[in-house]
Write a structure and sequence with these properties.
The chain is of the alpha+beta class. It has 2 helices and 9 strands.
Length: about 150
């Protein structure tokens, strides 16, 4: 669930603030933190808007799918910014409904409804870097897609 939320957060931040995907990411089971490079600190209302947007996406029960593609056949809209220079010719693309698509090797739930409830526990803004620390309170019946 935490890793799937990372995808939702990245796309939400891109849409709300016009930034790139996260600058730094630390995903763990109990709490995670993600940093983005943005010009201005978000307001408390914008931070609440981020949390509300993520919980809305979770409630939409968006399917989470993946496919393996040749690096030259990456679907339109998939950000290749974080792809390592030594990536293989075949990469795994993760797609969350029509909301987000990007290369990823992580484990994901099969549907956003399996995530549970998203909660921002703290934020900070220093020298153009905005950090969100968050927790996920899992849904009762979540299944995680393997990294196959």
């Amino acid at each position: 669930p935490m890793h799937t939320v990372e995808h939702l957060l990245n796309q939400t931040m891109q849409r709300m603030f016009g930034c790139k995907r996260s600058a730094k990411t630390h995903i763990e089971r109990k709490k995670s933190k993600i940093n983005w490079d943005i010009d201005v600190a978000p307001t408390p209302e914008q931070i609440q808007g981020i949390e509300d947007a993520i919980n809305d996406l979770i409630a939409q029960n968006l399917p989470v799918n993946y496919q393996f593609v040749n690096i030259e056949d990456v679907p339109k809209g998939a950000s290749m910014e974080k792809l390592p220079s030594d990536a293989s010719e075949t990469i795994r693309i993760v797609k969350i409904g029509e909301y987000d698509i990007c290369p990823c090797i992580g484990a994901h739930v099969k549907s956003t409804a399996e995530i549970g409830t998203f909660k921002i526990t703290s934020t900070s803004y220093n020298d153009g870097e905005f950090r969100i620390v968050y927790k996920v309170f899992p849904a009762e019946n979540s299944e995680v897609l393997t990294k196959e």
